[in-house]
Amino acid sequence: MKIGEILEETAKKNKSDVALVFEGQKIKWGEFNTCVNRLSHALMELNVSVGDRVAIWMSNCPEYFYAYYANGRIGSVSVPVNTFLKGEEVAFILNDSATHTIFLTPDFYEEFQKAAPKIRTVKNVIINATEKEFNSIFRTRDPKFQYFQMQSFLKREPSTTIFRTFSEEDLAVLIYTSGTTGFPKGAMLTHKNLISNVKQCNEALLLNKKDRILLFLPMFHSFTELVCMVLPVILGLRIIILPKIDSSKIKKALIKNRPTVFVGVPTVYNSMAQIKLSGLKRRLNPIRLYVSGAAPLAQDILNRFLHLYQRPLIEGYGLSEASPVVSCNLPGKERPLSVGLPVPGVEVKIVDENEREMKVDQVGEIIVRGDNVMKGYWKQPDETEKTLKNGWLFTGDMGKKDEDGYLYIVDRKKDMLLYRGQNIYPREIEEAIYNNPKVKECAVVGVKDAQKGEIPKAYISLKAGEKATEKEIRDYLKEKIANYKLPKYIKFLDELPKTPTGKILKKDLRELAQKDTVVGKDDGEN
Predict the structure, then answer these.
(1) Cα dist. 363→235, 391, 423 in Å?
(2) Burial class of residue 239 in the structure, from the number of CB atoms within 10 Å of its CB (0-12 exposed, 13-18 middle, 19+ buried)
(3) What's phi and psi for 81, nearest 5 deg?
(4) 53: enclosing H helix or E strand
(5) pLDDT in tens, 105-142
(6) Cβ contacts of 75 within 8 Å, gap of 6 or more
(7) Number of independent structural domains in the chain
(8) Domain range holding 390?
(9) How far, in Å, CA of 448 to CA of 451, rounded?
(10) Strand partners, 124
């Protein structure tokens, strides 16, 4: 099947049931499907063809769903835009993807204007705005684009379902990597990739018809897209949409809308693990399952969270190039420090530099094979050839498997440090630092040294009201990790730089480390 077809099937079965909840609105499946049909007709009138790229630069809202599924229905390719990017960064994505049409919410129009002189291929700008907002924007329009109000499209006829000829092997989404290591690359995901991965995930998670998903993570992210946008549509689950991560709105949604599945990222769970929760609040908590993704979850945070909330927190592993889920812990079968078993239909191997499979508990690169693996990188054949070999996706992540097949992430291949001929995995040091009760967040990167290779440097932010010194942290770590792994340099920051989904930007920290570190003597490290 294809993305647009799954919505049609679900709408037929659940026409009068509530599909989307957003700021007081309750949108039923039949209405959802009708809006997608109307928007599909409008896109075709704008000469959007099968395979054309259509960008979505919008805050979380029901209209994001309509744009995404309209593309899926007529065979155009959704290009989700990171809502934290600046105009020039977005211009790169639009030009690289040769985007034909773009959906905007008014909050990004100013950045769009800044980028406009550099945007080469966009013809149509569809703005999800009230008439007043649209008229205000229209006064400052760039004449090289055609502007349309999305709300007017959603009221138009016809509202019949469109059937266009294209294949499940055709592209559904062109999702750009976060760009933490340079210019972002467009991962080409097909309809088959996404639908296969949804089925693979649900065989592991076993969500049921009564479940209600709370969606507050940015919808442009592949993790949110699959778990909160495609999976619940296939299953016909209610989706409670919040505009953004907002603790007060999350609390209100828990009380009013009673979601049962909470999808978050480590920074969210870190904050939740530090609040006080009474026994009454715990008993009244409607959430039966918490899911964590997008970045590694430190074991100390996981332990504190589980003790406080007494609900399963399922951590998985994935990457955009795998649609994105590769593995996850099963409810009731979680294994500490592991990201679980490969989801059904996905194969995982650990290999060395010569692509020979490693033995149990030996560290190597994680490679993945399955129907969820991307078609390749958009217009980057050399990068595709490096990443996809003989049907396997080489992830660039270092890991190991235990005797039962549980997968453990050790670190990113590019994050590994080589210090005097010995491998150092920053995540191991970070796990040890997180065990310190004063620490809120941390990250370890390498500082280049001509004599020793790379020396570990730790960036740490402390919990509110806490104080610590470099010596105190280093003395604490001496009891937990080998001397050669001890960070020679430690710096405290109020906040660590992050991507919008909570992943710490190590690229920024590496650049900072090279600028603000004066490489000195050993200070006795081995």
Answers:
(1) 37, 22, 11
(2) buried
(3) -105, 130
(4) strand 53-57
(5) 999 999 999 899 999 999 999 999 999 889 888 777 88
(6) 49, 50, 51, 164, 166, 170
(7) 3
(8) 194-413
(9) 9
(10) 101, 146
What is the phi/psi pair of residue 290, to 5°?
-105, 140
At 376, the pLDDT band (50, 70, 90 cuts) reads: very high
Residues 6+ apart with CB under 8 A from 475: none
244 plus 125 within the same structural domain: no
Three-state DSSP class for residue 239: strand
Same structural domain for residues 210 and 351? yes
Reported as a single tens digit per residue, the pLDDT across 41-70 is 999 999 999 999 999 999 999 999 999 999
Within-domain flag for 181: no
CB 366 within 8 A of CB 399: yes
What CATH number has the domain bearing residue 378?
A: 3.40.50.12780
**Cα gap 82→221, rounded to integer Å:** 7
At residue 524, the pLDDT reads 40
Strand, helix or coil at 443? strand
What is d(CA 120, CA 96) in angstroms, rounded to the nearest whole number?
A: 10
Q: What is the dihedral of CA 297, 300, 303, 306, to 10 degrees?
A: -50
- At 520, the pLDDT band (50, 70, 90 cuts) reads low
Residue with the two structure tokens 């570190």: 517
CB 411 within 8 A of CB 431: no
Predicted TM-score of the model (pTM)? 0.85
Distance, in Å, from the CA atom of 499 to the CA atom of 324, rounded to the nearest integer, reads 17
Structural domain ending residue among the three candidates 149, 166, 183: 166
- For the chain, give percent helix, strand, coil, nearest 5: 35, 25, 40
Which of 147, 166, 185 lies at the terminal end of a domain, its last residue?
166
Taking the C-alpha atoms of residue 323 and residue 5, their distance in angstroms, rounded to an integer, is 19
User: Within this chain, do residues 436 and 489 fall inside the same structural domain, yes or no?
Assistant: yes
170-220, pLDDT tens digit by residue?
999 999 986 444 578 999 999 999 999 999 998 888 899 999 999 999 999
pLDDT tens for 413-432 read 778 887 876 778 888 899 89
What is the pLDDT, as a whole number, of residue 393? 97
Distance of CA 348 to the CA centre of its chain: 20
46 is written with which tokens? 């704008």
Smallest CA-to-CA distance from 372 within 317, 409, 325 is with 325
In this predicted model, which residue has the larger pLDDT, 202 or 296?
A: 202
CB of 462 closer than 8 Å to CB of 442: no
- Would you tell me how many other CB atoms lie within 10 Å of the CB of residue 308? 15
| Residue 287 lies inside a defined structural domain of this protein | yes
* Residues constituting the chain: 526
- What is the distance between the alpha carbons of residues 485 and 423, in angstroms, rounded to a whole number? 9
What pLDDT score does 363 carry?
93
Do both 329 and 232 map to the same domain? yes
Residue 186 lies in a domain: no
What's the mean pLDDT when you consider all of the chain?
91
Q: Are 24 and 256 in contact (CB under 8 A)?
A: no
CA 483 to CA 491: how far, in whole Å? 19
What is the CA 453 to chain-centroid distance, rounded? 32
For residues 239 and 342, state if they share a domain.
Answer: yes
